[in-house]
Specification:
The chain has 3 domains: about 40 residues; about 220 residues, UDP-N-acetylmuramoyl-L-alanine:D-glutamate ligase (3-Layer(aba) Sandwich); about 130 residues, Protein-Tyrosine Phosphatase, Chain A, CATH 3.90.190. The strands form 2 sheets. Strands 2-3-1-4-5-6-7 form a 7-stranded parallel β-sheet, sandwiched between helices. It is globular and about 60 Å long. By secondary structure, the protein is α/β, with parallel strands linked by helices. It is built from 14 helices and 13 strands. Helix 4 crosses helix 9 and helix 9 runs antiparallel to helix 10.
Length: about 400
């Protein structure tokens, strides 16, 4: 079987599997489609990305929204069609399905899970890689950030790609230390909660000025772009993707860039529950929970936390977060670990109640604005219900 014929068969069978999965209510089908493609042709990702202009986005927080934002910016400012995933599928199967989409546009904007990035970098041969941030995820309580930084440091050792990084993150500066082309964006420093010691030499980092300093010289490279220190997380990510879009040929004027920053997308989705609109913030780790809590303006709040699959079973990360923004508010906890959340909040003096489901939590509020913050699988459950897919089968997506 020739390489091109094998690839054609793989894509055709993968597309059929994806359509069947969706028709049978087993999910959106991207992951299954990609798995079939890679089972038939393990080299499919390299073949499907050949001759295309690929941009990869990775980091702990904001990958999905930043990927969608970058794809939109390229369509609007570079005048090109863009292939990308609308569902946030960021592992090899999802990436293979994305690349096999029709039409196969010259531009492909790909979200990539942090652990898979070195391998995908080798297979995709991207022109640009955007590194948003590295922080501790609740899935792995020890060593994850440094492990990923080391993997990236080893992977980005050539000059065949341009990295766009937030240089205020010492782990990203270390990851990019051996890369030939780096666009360093600084927001004038901010302390990193997981970087007490240098990822390069393990010395204690000096954060006395609000930025990091180390005798080994990590971080001494001057930034290429200086941005406003007051920008929040989504706005900082928008600054990074604007620089990536410019590298790909997008012509973005200063006033246009400022408008894009002001309209930065976040991970909030409006769900209709019990005839009430509930703006729901997806928060997957302590840092994104801190950001979500800072955005709470309503006096009625639902918190939903599971401990299933990608959430991880360990909920001790709940104690890393300051919930003082919820003091005096009407808070209802739901999800599989609602009692864990309720106890954590009660220790901080926040009065809470619990509900057996998200819909029952919303029903606790008679009227008025409601906001929700939910963990990953809780968010996926809500999306699954919105799409009319059985939650018991949603893992096949």
């Amino acid at each position: 079987m020739t390489g091109s014929f094998r690839l054609g068969v793989a894509c055709a069978v993968g597309a059929l599997a994806g359509r069947l999965s969706k028709a049978l209510g087993r999910g959106r089908g991207e992951t299954l489609s990609g798995r079939v493609i890679l089972a038939i042709d393990p080299q499919a990702i390299s073949k499907l990305s050949s001759g295309r202009d690929v941009v990869v986005v990775s980091g702990t927080n904001g990958k999905t929204t930043s990927t969608k934002n970058l794809a939109t910016i390229l369509r609007d400012f570079a005048g090109e069609g863009v292939s990308t995933s609308e569902s946030g599928a960021n592992m090899p199967a999802g990436i293979a399905a994305l690349l096999a989409q029709s039409p196969r546009n010259r531009f492909a904007v790909i979200e990539c899970d942090e652990m898979y990035l070195p391998d995908m970098y080798r297979q995709l041969a991207p022109k640009v890689v955007v590194l948003l941030n590295l922080s501790r995820d609740q899935l792995h309580r020890t060593g994850e950030v440094r492990k990923v930084a080391n993997l990236w440091h080893e992977a980005f050792s050539r000059d065949d790609v341009t990295l766009v990084i937030d240089r205020d993150d010492p782990f990203l500066e270390y990851a990019a230390a051996n890369a030939g082309h780096v666009i360093r964006v600084s927001f004038n420093g901010r302390r990193h909660p997981d970087a007490a010691t240098c990822p390069n030499c393990a010395a204690i980092l000096n954060w006395s000025s609000g930025d990091y300093a180390c005798p080994c010289g990590l971080g001494k490279q001057l930034p290429d772009v200086r941005a406003d220190k007051r920008l929040d997380g989504p706005q900082r990510n928008t600054v990074l993707v604007i620089e990536a879009a410019r590298l790909m040929g997008a012509e973005i004027l200063a006033d246009e860039a400022q408008d894009l920053i002001n309209k930065s997308p976040d991970r909030i989705h409006d769900f209709m529950v019990s005839d009430k609109k509930v703006p729901t913030h997806l928060a997957k780790n302590p840092e994104s929970w801190r950001q979500a809590l800072g955005d709470v303006t309503s006096d009625q709040v639902v918190l939903s936390v599971n401990a299933r699959g990608i959430d991880g079973r360990d909920t001790s990360w709940l104690w890393d977060i300051d919930y003082s923004a919820l003091l005096g508010k009407n808070v209802v906890c739901t999800g599989e670990r609602r009692l864990d959340v309720a106890y954590r909040l009660s220790v901080q003096g926040i009065e809470v109640s619990v509900a057996s489901s998200f819909s029952k939590a919303v029903e606790n509020f008679p009227a008025g604005p409601i906001q929700a913050i939910v963990s990953y699988t809780a968010f996926q459950d809500l999306l699954t219900s919105e799409l009319g897919i059985s939650q018991g089968k949603s893992g096949s997506r």
